[in-house]
Amino acid sequence: MTIERIFISTEAGGKQSEREQIELVAGSGIVGDRNFGLSKWPGQNLTLIEAEEIEAFLEEHHLPHDLTISRRNLITRGIRLNDLVGKEFQLGGVILRGVELCEPCSSLGERLSSLISPDVSLKMLIQSFMGKGGLRVDALTSGTIKIGDTIQVLAKQVKE
Prior knowledge:
Blueprint: E1 2-8, E2 17-19, E3 21-25, E4 29-30, E5 46-50, H1 51-60, E6 74-77, E7 88-91, E8 94-101, H2 106-116, H3 122-128, E9 135-139, E10 143-146, E11 151-153
Parallel strand pairs: 5-6
Antiparallel strand pairs: 1-2, 1-6, 3-4, 3-10, 5-9, 7-8, 7-11, 8-9
């Protein structure tokens, strides 16, 4: 139940850069990320995805090992993120709340299609990540998250 990789992107559709650690601001997200301070919808500022789901997709489609394809911020290993919807948990020095599943969108489908084949249906590619596309979370406290940090579900839920 650890953080394996961390990515941010400074602009929409821009290249992701890998980080050893990130600073989160409660209610605003990752300092330096393109979604910092945006609040069009809950969970917009930080996304997580399971390494195991990305690896299964890459293996199924005979693609090189590239954990950046999902464009999620945090790549986890050893935890079922779907189980964190509606729950509060601690990650490094930050308390987070799982808001909703981060279902795949058409831009993810287009990126995957360009890797596999333009003949592969976007709908099929998007459906292959339905229920496995990660988790949108809100930062309830500010602090640092770094590679190797563990996820701990809070037994007593924190009140806002």
